[in-house]
Write a structure and sequence with these properties.
Length: 293
């Protein structure tokens, strides 16, 4: 499997089971009419804005749009979710109910338009943008939708990998810590997501000794490193990392990132010594200052 720690949600499993039962097994089988028929939904076309009716179980698509265009496919799967899983008229329901339905529909679109059991058979290129283009072309979906699906899979893969590391770490504690394992020295590590493009780190882990934490206001690091690279097998040693927040970071004039140790010492009562910095947080800081990763 391409992503060994990825697990399908219940909704994802239901869609996959239906597809397999109805012999919808490849991206070429994801024909809108065929899928609608398999669910007992009437698919029609008209010269109007696309919509659906969950009581009468039909979907109307705007025939002025190409029947195979990626935008129409996205609309089809969105409306299909409303027909299959939702009840009531959204025009009359409270905002939170409507939002819940829309959120589920967005997840349904990702799962139904790009089923994981089909994705797992693809050979992905190492470069991120090439991987997104592969998804978009294979499943005939918009680039942004393919990007969202890839990000979702990689995020869930990372979380699954981290959970696996936590379990290994807990099991290892049953036999007691290794000699000298309680000694902490200040180091900066970088983890490169194995499902990414290997160019920049997806997480930076900063480990500080107690004296540094208590005596220094900040610790600085350059985006160019040097970092000590972490492999997946080493992650279990950092399962106790604490997350940082956007306001824990700053950007200096000499193009370095500042991690405000005083914030972290106060928040964690001087008892945490390992901190994980997500790439998205660094990108947010750089965007604020008009810089780039």
């Amino acid at each position: 499997m391409l992503f060994p720690h990825y697990h399908e949600t219940l909704l994802e499993q239901l869609i996959s089971k239906h597809y397999r039962t109805n012999q919808i097994l490849t991206p070429e089988d994801l024909d809108m009419s065929r899928i609608a028929d398999s669910f007992g939904v009437d698919l029609r076309y008209d010269t109007c804005k696309s919509f659906s009716d969950n009581e009468e179980r039909f979907i109307i698509l705007d025939k002025r749009e190409s029947a195979i265009s990626s935008s129409v496919r996205k609309i089809f799967f969105h409306e299909l979710c409303h027909v299959l899983r939702h009840a009531g008229d959204q025009r009359k329901m409270p905002y939170l109910f409507k939002k819940a339905q829309e959120d589920e529909a967005e997840h349904f679109v990702l799962y139904a338009s790009m089923p994981y059991f089909m994705i797992s058979k693809l050979k992905f290129p190492d470069i991120r943008i090439d991987a997104i283009n592969l998804l978009a072309a294979t499943f005939k979906v918009p680039f942004k939708l393919a990007e969202k699906r890839l990000d979702q899979i990689q995020r869930r893969e990372y979380e699954g990998n981290l959970l696996s590391s936590i379990m290994k770490f807990k099991n290892s504690q049953l036999s007691g810590p290794e000699p000298g394992s309680d000694k902490i020295e200040t180091k900066i590590y970088a983890y490169f997501d194995s499902t990414g493009d290997y160019i920049e780190p997806s997480q930076i882990i900063i480990q500080v000794d107690q004296q540094t934490l208590l005596s220094e206001q900040e610790i600085l690091f350059s985006l160019d490193g040097p970092f000590e690279r972490l492999e997946e097998s080493q992650l279990e040693a950092f399962v106790d990392c604490k997350p940082i927040k956007f306001n824990d970071l700053d950007y200096t004039r000499d193009r370095r990132i500042s991690l405000k140790l005083s914030h972290l010492a106060s928040r964690y009562y001087n008892s945490a010594f390992k901190f994980i910095v997500q790439r998205k947080d660094i990108e947010q800081v750089l965007h604020y200052y008009g810089a780039e990763f």
